[in-house]
Amino acid sequence: MLSRVASNLCWLGRYLERAENTARLINVNSNLLLDLPKSIVLGWEPLVDIVSDRTAFYAIYDVADEHNVLRFLLHGPNNPSSIVSSLEFARENARTIREIIPREVWEQINELYLYGHENYSKALVRRSRYEFLTEVIESVQKITGILAGTMTQDEGYHFLKIGRNLERADMTTRIIDVRSASLLPETETEQSAFENLQWMSVLKSLTAYQMYRREMRLRIRRPDVLKFLLLEERFPRSLLHALQEVGRCVQTLPNYAETKTEIERVEKMLMDANPQSLIQDKLHHFIDDVQLGINHVFNKLEETYF
Amino acid sequence: MPIDWNKYDTGPFHDELVETSGRPRGYAKELCKFIQNLSDVELQEYKAGADSAIKVMGITFRVYNDEEGSIDRAWPFDIVPRLIELKEWQQIEKGLKQRVKALNMFINDLYNEQNIVKDGIFPEALLTHSKNFLPQCKGVTPPLGIWAHICGSDLVRDQHGTVYVLEDNLRVPSGVSYMLENRQVMKRVFPEMFKQYDILPVDNYPSDLYDMLAALSPRNIPEPEIVVLTPGIYNSAYFEHAYLAQQMGAELVVGDDLVVEDDNCVYMRTINGLSRVDVIYRRIDDAFIDPEVFNPESTLGVPGLMRAWKSGNVALANAPGSGVADDKVVYSYVPQIIEYYLNETPLLSNVPTYRCVNPDEKEYVLANIEKMVVKPANESGGYGMLIGPHASAKEHEAFRQLIKDDPRNYVAQPMLLLSTAPTMVGNTVEGRHLDLRPFILSSQEVKVTMGGLTRVAMIKGSTVVNSSQGGGSKDTWIVDMEGS
């Protein structure tokens, strides 16, 4: 497999996952907004922190209100991580490797890009927002499904999966980091119902709520949520699961030893830290370290294969 | 209002489907009847169906535009197919095979003995002034003596229905993917018609192309490494490069993916390290393939590629230098070339062509320029042409000057009344001019596509069919009327 193609496949996986995750994120925030009382101000700014950075945002907008943040996340100029930008990059990547991916996948990606490009403004309006975001999420899921069902599970397929899971691992840590920081101060006493709601929203951003319920059979508590999202190896969007997937894929490639070592280093960090019991500050530092570790894994991949 | 064939006016032209108003040709009767029975709504549905299939399938063509840079356009497609009877097609096919065989012998001769020059058939002066004759290729004989493995010849029909060859494209002819995709679109949109007619399939082109390329491999191994070399996604024909690579299961590479090592072999950079390449279907022009030999500024090509090719370690299709026969002055000699090498009478005619390099022919062209089409010898894509009858006096004068300055570089042809075919315009059909580009593959045997790419000038009265000039296309059906 050509190095350039391997790199393109990996990025294709990342961009598609990014578009899907961003859509999930907006969806959950929008729902949360409807549930919270007016007295609790749940800003939209945290979403900017999750997918991009404030500098880029405030270079164009004055206030982080619903409309501006949504514009930025959907199609914002200055935001290469917006849904439409991600879809556009995915399409450009797919276009350069059309001969590698099944034809239906190219058609789906092309169609999804066209849909996103032509309809993103629907999501600015609350009434049609859900429809647009769900379409994006479902289309990416469909693409993932077609790939799983039709593409030979060769090196190329594994590079796609590596990209998808690295992006997922990255996004999961970002969501936890920003969300836990913007939640209400931790108290020993009875949690407020609203904090409860917010932790639920974290779970829901990752479509983890139902699975958490089945698994934990507990009320929503910070340590349990953290444990589930960081360490539950059987849940596909948990950090540990994503890392392990990357590890499994890497093992099918030539010369994988060094990359594998980097992955194991992050896994070990995760197991040793007992992150569910960390207080906010420590958790933040810990997540920084994990993100650095994920970067090292990606750099090693780049160095070895691309 | 349903389509009324009585109102379809063929004008002074030969129409591919209709003899005269209200009288479809025998082989087009079923098709015309089918179209006539469609309501406006149905017609629009078919058209929308085709448009959406093209959009979803991502069939695009990159158009260069001064204002917007370059943009991807959906492939302009007309839903009314163009029909040719199998009987007639078989004659055309024979003529094309003959022509390409002679052209390949000609190219090989030019780079070796040059007997045709010595025997006084082809003037030496033309050779020395040919832009596409590459001295770097002298003394080389590629396997089987074949240089142009893939040729796309443009055919037109005049007002009497006679088929002429307008030009031969022997460098990097494009369009075959659109021929294949047009058929896919038609099958999605018009499945009913495929029951009515015995339409010969075109789908085997990618495997024929693969077999032809594989046969060129310098290493005698079961699975030679074949790659398609593209200038990249910003090239107007990128869609086609990717498509063909995908259909053949070959790697699609850009120059940077390849490297020529000290052993004069070509390798590609893979996740396993370097891996040997046997055959390159290159879609980059000669001038850019190897900065060591040609344009040193080129970043599209691969340094050392010519060394590897001349050492016989890699096959290039088409071979460098094939473009020498892609010259519009050379074109005018093809009938003599066929007679010289094959000792046969040409089965397909050339459009009469005046060579400005000959003083008396030049005088004739200068005197009659307003009636002629003047073409530079080595341009493609419809650039740099003068269409006399449609040009202003100022343009005529400018071209007269160009011809006087560089007579070798110009040929002129009388303006042909190109044939037309019914084409959807709104909810009705009007005649639009068209041509046909069949693709000819040459290795041990010569194979011609069943039909080819029909290009249509979408603008009323226009005869410029090039997609780079906004032309569109139609599906081309070779129909077997005797079988059905």
From TrEMBL, chain A:
Listed name of the protein: DUF403 domain-containing protein
Domain DUF403: start-end pairs: 1-306
A UniProt-annotated Pfam family: Alpha-E
Source species, domain of life: Bacteria
Coiled-coil parts of chain: none
Organism of origin: Paraglaciecola mesophila
Secretion signal, residue range per the UniProt entry: none
Automatic annotation (TrEMBL), chain B:
Pfam name, any one: CP_ATPgrasp_2
Domain called Circularly permuted ATP-grasp type: residue spans: 81-457
Domain of life (superkingdom): Bacteria
InterPro entries: ATP-dep_Glu-Cys_Ligase-2, CP_ATPgrasp_2, UCP005522
Signal peptide region: none
Gene3D superfamilies membership: 3.30.1490.270, 3.40.50.11290
Protein name (database record): Circularly permuted ATP-grasp type 2 domain-containing protein
Lineage of source species: Bacteria, Pseudomonadati, Pseudomonadota, Gammaproteobacteria, Alteromonadales
